[in-house]
Amino acid sequence: MGDKTEQPAIELNSEQKKQLKITLLTHSEGRLLMAGVALAFIYALWLGIKMLYSPEDSQVLVGMTATQIIFGRAAGMAFGYSLDLKHITVIPMCIAIETITVLIFYPLFVFSWRQLLVINWLKNILQRIRNAAEAKKDIVQKYGIIGLFVFVWFPFWMTGPVVGCAIGFLLNLRVWVIMTAVLAGTYVAIFGWAFFLRQLLDQMASYSPYAAMVLMVLLVIIIVVGHLLRQTPPENKHKTNA
């Protein structure tokens, strides 16, 4: 009986692998994923070259990259500006990181939804993205593409390009429509954050030379606390309130 129950699972896995290979080559999501991986490789190669020729500068760039990936766009950009990086460096880096994130996570979300590719260590992340997208879908649906653009652009909690892509998928929008709306909203948001943070940090620097670093730390704390609160199960919140 054990052999009979295991055999279909083996056949299903091999079929999924074949389907995944076909999807990567022929479907839009597959081509997006390959483009994202290629851009990620180029970005990592650029950081590696920087590390060879300018180790001190590369440490700052790696630090900004890691901060943005872990804590988000605002914290990453604040980190860069706090270490005297200019717009010409911070903005293109932020655009590259966000673009790579969209091109990689959107196909992975779609593949996971269709059960073509399930990555165990990404399950919880993709599930949170799905939950956030389903919660915000009705709001975005009222305004269509413009709603999706605004959702990605406006700095609400649990908004952003990855969740925006998931919402676009749930709304059955075409891939090129999703990418256009999401990336356009992302780039506009990056420019908005850039000029806002730069002006804010310049004003704060007149009061204290450590003001920029304090702002970055505060942003990280807010993001971490918000993440922890969002992760707290409802029953635990009731116990805490009690």
Q: What ranges have pLDDT less than 50 throughout 5 or more consecutive residues?
A: 1-12, 236-242
SSE succession: HHHHHHHHHHH
* Oligomeric state of shown chains: single chain
Number of domains: 1
Number of helices: 11
Shape: globular
Average pLDDT, to the nearest integer? Answer: 81
CA(first)-CA(last) distance: 51 Å
Radius of gyration: 21 Å
% residues in beta strands: under 5%
Helix/strand structural class: mainly alpha
Largest sheet: none
Number of strand elements: 0
Q: What is the helical fraction, as a range of percent?
A: over 70%
Could you walk me through the main structural features you see in this protein, from its secondary elements to its overall organization?
The protein is mainly α and 242 residues long. The chain has one domain (12-230). Helices cover 84% and strands 0% of the residues. The chain contains eleven helices and no strands. It has helices at 2-26, 28-53, 55-71, 73-82, 87-113, 123-141, 144-153, 161-170, 175-205, 211-231, 234-241. The longest helix is centred in the C-terminal third of the chain and has 31 residues, at 175-205.
Task: Based on the model shown, name its key terms.
disordered N terminus; globular; disordered C terminus; single chain; 84% helix; 242 residues; mainly alpha
Give me a quick take on this structure.
By secondary structure, the chain is mainly alpha-helical. It has one domain (12-230).
